[in-house]
DNA sequence: AACATATGTTATTTTTCCTCACATAACATT
DNA sequence: AATGTTATGTGAGGAAAAATAACATATGTT
């Protein structure tokens, strides 16, 4: 399982995210409402957050603290998403790499089925976990 | 924050651990009762599991599936713990490393305070996260 | 002044998790 | 064969966490 995938896996309940980010539940839900994050939902409709979500929230917090508003944060995120796509598009990969990736995707699918959430979210940026 | 610490940080609710390990809540609590794992507890008395806990549970599952009983699993774990201690004892570290470790410990303490759980658990073995 | 933004607060309902107790299949022991 | 042990299932009852929704509000904007 790739590190990126692990970081994108929805695992944490909102209570943990609150502690890790020092944000209130209200804030976290508000940011979601404005599409800055898109946490997965459990069968029972509970939000489940990935480590990527936590990263995003920490960054949202910082940007807001810098006086940037929600719209600004969204812009920043959208720009990053685009640039990631652009930079990713260029790389060509070897056959072996491709096979490795496929193997991972398959495993991902299996785990995702087990974890069975209504929607995940895409990796945003990768630091250390 | 060190990888080991991150893996030892209690983050996941039992529902997620159930899905990741394919164990029932009953099984997970039973293994805890027998001291094979020691998940942290939230203020509200909910079990919170670390990635290390998940690793341990996966291994418990495998060992049990191999016909080994709980006592046997415990033995295996205890043996490993001892050998880890032994191998760790020998290494001597540089000043810089020591300072880096201390810095991390401090950050750990801060986060731990935020996460404020009644008890964590020690890293057991470290694979990839 | 009126409006918008970001967040707090509170009420209500639903979901998740806890403990405890009892049940039981598969093995082991007497 | 009867009894005990181990590992797990199941269900009741209760507590905690989280959801939605509505109203409140400080600060900044037009």
From TrEMBL, chains A, B:
HTH merR-type domain ranges (all copies): 11-79
Superkingdom as given in the UniProt entry: Bacteria
Keywords: DNA-binding, Repressor, Transcription, Transcription regulation
Parts of the chain that traverse the membrane: none
Presence of the UniProt keyword Repressor in the record: yes
SMART domains: HTH_MERR (SM00422)
Molecular function terms, GO-annotated: DNA binding; DNA-binding transcription factor activity
Stored PANTHER family: HTH-TYPE TRANSCRIPTIONAL REGULATOR TNRA (PTHR30204:SF65), REDOX-CYCLING DRUG-SENSING TRANSCRIPTIONAL ACTIVATOR SOXR (PTHR30204)
Protein name: MerR family glutamine synthetase transcriptional repressor
Organism for this UniProt entry: Ureibacillus xyleni
Organismal lineage: Bacteria, Bacillati, Bacillota, Bacilli, Bacillales
